[in-house]
Design goal:
There is one protein chain. By secondary structure, the chain is an alpha/beta fold. It has a single domain (2-83, 93-106, 120-162), classed as 3-Layer(aba) Sandwich (Rossmann fold), CATH 3.40.50. It is built from five helices and seven strands, in the order E-H-E-H-E-E-H-E-E-E-H-H. The protein has helices at residues 10-23, 40-50, 87-92, 143-152, 157-162, and strands spanning 2-7, 29-33, 67-70, 76-80, 104-108, 121-129, 133-141. A seven-stranded mixed β-sheet has the order 1-7-6-2-5-4-3, with helices on one face. Helix 1 packs across helix 2 (40-50) and helix 1 (10-23) crosses helix 4. The longest helix is centred in the first third of the chain and has 14 residues, at 10-23. The model is unreliable at 156-165 (pLDDT under 50). It binds adenosine-5'-triphosphate and magnesium ion. Adenosine-5'-triphosphate binds at residues 7-10, 12-13, 34, 36-42, 61, 108, 132-134.
Amino acid sequence: MTRRYRCPTPEDTAAVGAAVGRAAEAGLVVLLQGDLGAGKTVFAKGVARGLGVPRWRYVTSPTFTIHNEYGGRLRLHHLDLYRLETPDEFEDLGFEGVLGGEGVCVLEWPDLFFGCLPPDRLRIRFRWDGADGRLLDADADGPVARRVLAAAGAPVRDDAREERE
Ligand SMILES: Nc1ncnc2c1ncn2[C@@H]1O[C@H](COP(=O)(O)OP(=O)(O)OP(=O)(O)O)[C@@H](O)[C@H]1O
Ligand SMILES: [Mg+2]
């Protein structure tokens, strides 16, 4: 299953994340792929909001910590693998109980580690669409990811805009 979201502003990107957070089920794994500054952390902040994480505004990039955890309707694990270089390094961190477990995992920079990640995953690729706009292409592999993407809603710009605060 595939959906495309057009996100002219950061709020639109966060709104798509929030829709995913509201639709999320235990075991959801979301992979965020895109260049530096593409909007992955903006999206993750939206997921936190959608999961009802109190103080979601303070969700920060785990570039240095690798793993940040937040309590919401489901526990949110936000991982940033940018600084990891090999699958062995990733395996040594021992995330296998976390990935696909009771909570929701959102991973930035998963690209080198696809072989270590559960097959049921929602992959979102971020591309530039003009100066500020972003195009988000979502692909769901596996039953959890498919249900969540289906429930997250229609990929129309006005839907994203409705979510703005
Ligand atoms: N349409 C948009 N969607 C998302 N972010 C946008 C958009 N337009 C502008 N931006 C800006 O782009 C930046 C995205 O930063 P963000 O930290 O989310 O990127 P990232 O993909 O997590 O980068 P990194 O790989 O360094 O972690 C923010 O400053 C945000 O305000
Ligand atoms: Mg980031």
